[in-house]
Amino acid sequence: xxxxxxxxxxxxxxxxxxxxxxxxxxxxxxxxxxxxxxxxxxxxxxxxxxxxxxxxxxxxxxxxxxxxxxxxxxxxxxxxxxxxxxxxxxxxxxxxxxxxxxxxxxxxxxxxxxxxxxxxxxxxxxxxxxxxxxxxxxxxxxxxxxxxxxxxxxxxxxxxxxxxxxxxxxxxxxxxxxxxxxxxxxxxxxxxxxxxxxxxxxxxxxxxxxxxxxxxxxxxxxxxxxxxxxxxxxxxxxxxxxxxxxxxxxxxxxxxxxxxxxxxxxxxxxxxxxxxxxxxxxxxxxxxxxxxxxxxxxxxxxxxxxxxxxxxxxxxxxxxxxxxxxxxxxxxxxxxxxxxxxxxxxxxxxxxxxxxxxxxxxxxxxxxxxxxxxxxxxxxxxxxxxxxxxxxxxxxxxxxxxxxxxxxxxxxxxxxxxxxxxxxxxxxxxxxxxxxxxxxxxxxxxxxxxxxxxxxxxxxxxxxxxxxxxxxxxxxxxxxxxxxxxxxxxxxxxx
Length: 495
Ligand SMILES: Cc1cc2nc3c(=O)[nH]c(=O)nc-3n(C[C@H](O)[C@H](O)[C@H](O)COP(=O)(O)OP(=O)(O)OC[C@H]3O[C@@H](n4cnc5c(N)ncnc54)[C@H](O)[C@@H]3O)c2cc1C
Prior knowledge:
binds flavin-adenine dinucleotide, single chain, FAD/NAD(P)-binding domain
């Protein structure tokens, strides 16, 4: 094998040349999760295992988070905690310092620095390029394509791609990441088809052609909204920016001062009410000591997956229904420089945060009138905006995702949403559960797709550990096979 449909290959190509002595693991999606998983698989699986990394976008290794070209879109985790490798915590920091030193002659970047997300994408791509260069043994193929369905009726999986291409694999891992926000139900959904509305804040037309003095409404007040406000300010937007969500909660900022560590003898409760009480008491202790609360969240985070897996289903549902917005604003925080800009925009009155619920949209000449019910009132207020951008965060309810692969996996019963509607249902070892609850031996998932099982599976520090774990697990499932002659295999796609 192994590159199907690389430049020059025709539509309808069927992979045929694959040596049966080889095991192929197809990884669908080359964002952070898929790329890192592939690198770990290469380290752990023997020479008889071939990895095919499939990505529908032009750039491998960036995904949605690390594609932004805007240098003001910085990481919301300090550089010292963004290593791709759990066991080498300073790997990214050292890479970035070297890169910065080469560019500017100094190495002023510190563990606490918040660097552009684009740079992080460069880092992941550099890791991938390094692996591709590692001659002579090329066991990683990059395939540009859109996986639309997976046929699991044969001895091997058949991955159906665009242009009629089919790739066969023994195992496949969904690393498909996040999907654009869902539109909120409103009285007249035809508004969502008008030119006033932008359903995807990451699409290149989200802010295009906007009058810089015009009012804009952002639906959602989390980190996606923060990114869009920063982009608007960067493009010189001077008009009012309204950001509306049900509770109007803004992400907190990262702390610069000292924190109060949780006493080592304290164990983390797994009953929701007890956990809440514990965190409140720790926060009060920190406040009394004049310290920051942020390290409390950071200390519990590495244990959150364990807490989640032990917590009762009823407590999980309560957490998602009632506490999630508060957890999110404490857990997903703004870099200090970003928080400064947001605070300045609020202080000047340009950015207004509204707690409320949209009731209706009424397009008028050149703008749209939005009626909303402010939180805790029965009244209705209105505002006008030239554009409404959905910043409500990724859609996690897979029943509402229109993506072809997801629709097909749900339709044929290969997968099912988890009961909390946070992603797809998987086991503790990341195996997909079918509609009837059967555990797949060949289909797995990594990254945000698996949030239902692990909850804390959003950011790099969690996903990198999951990738290491899944690579190890898959390497144990791969049957030992004779090494195939890999050296002459052409690498026909460049990242
Ligand atoms: C805007 C933003 C900022 C973030 N900032 C940080 C941060 O500062 N620090 C941190 O730790 N975490 C951050 N995160 C969280 C985390 O790092 C990302 O969510 C993580 O990168 C997820 O990676 P992924 O590969 O699972 O998903 P994605 O990045 O979404 O990548 C999935 C890839 O799969 C491809 N794909 C999907 N379906 C198919 C298909 N059918 N066929 C082929 N290809 C397909 C997509 O094109 C995409 O490239 C951020 C997330 C976002 C969205």
